Amino acid sequence: MSKIFQQLLFILPAFGAFSPDVMAQTNGQQLYLQNCMVCHADDGSGGMPGVADLTENRNWSTISEEKLLERIKQGIALPGAAVTMPPNGGNPDLSDSDLKLIIKYMRMEFTKK
Ligand code: HEC
User: Fold this and answer.
1) Per-residue pLDDT for 90 more than 70?
2) Residues enclosing ligand 1, CB less than 6 A?
3) Burial class (CB in 10 A: 0-12, 13-18, 19+), 66
4) Atom number in ligand 1 closest to CA 103
5) Looking at ligand 1, which residue's alpha carbon is closest to its atom 7?
6) pLDDT over 60 (residue 32)
7) Is residue 4 part of a domain?
8) pTM, rounded to two decimals
9) Phi then psi for 42, rounded to 5 degrees?
10) Which of 95, 75, 101 is nearest to 87 (CA)?
11) Which residue has the CA at smallest separation from atom 38 of ligand 1?
């Protein structure tokens, strides 16, 4: 067995040691900050005027993951709103599994208080 292969065998289980929840937390947070923070702020409170505070207005956190995923993919245009949310927050490259990580992160972090 080559030395490098032996080292890989040693290193890979170390990554496996992260629980799925920790992975969701890390990746979901990163994806959220890259794609959603510009309008929703890092803490979900809404950085841009006209964007609701998602930590106060929590209907989004009570609908099913599938429904919320569809809403995020469609984009959100509320009647009379000054700002509308483009599909995927404007990033067509986000996959369903990326969006589910973001949803998981938002549900963990923005419904605490
Ligand atoms: C260009 C600004 C913008 C970006 C970028 C953006 N949003 Fe939004 N988002 C909005 C607006 C505006 C609303 C409507 C808020 C309101 O009720 O006033 C909204 C609402 C939401 C809601 C509440 C949905 C509901 O059913 O009421 C969720 C959840 C959400 N956004 C998630 C995301 C996620 C996830 C991303 C990143 C992938 C994202 N947003 C990126 C502007 C944005």
Assistant:
1) yes
2) 35-36, 38-40, 51-52, 54, 59-60, 68, 71-72, 76, 78, 81, 83-86, 88-90, 102
3) exposed
4) 35
5) 85
6) yes
7) no
8) 0.84
9) -65, -25
10) 75
11) 89
Q: Which atom of ligand 1 is nearest to the CA of 63?
A: 26
Alpha-carbon distances of 82 from 39, 53, 56, 91, 109, rounded to whole Å: 12, 15, 19, 20, 26
The domain that holds 59 is classified in CATH as 1.10.760.10
> How many other C-beta atoms are found inside a 10 Å radius of the C-beta of residue 87?
13
Domain extent for 91: 19-109
Report how far residue 61's alpha carbon sits from residue 53's, in angstroms, rounded to the nearest whole number: 12
Q: Which atom of ligand 1 is nearest to the CA of 71?
A: 26
Domains in the chain, number: 1
Q: Where are the beta strands (DSSP E) in 1-113?
A: none
Is there a domain that residue 13 lies in?
A: no
In a domain, 3, yes or no: no
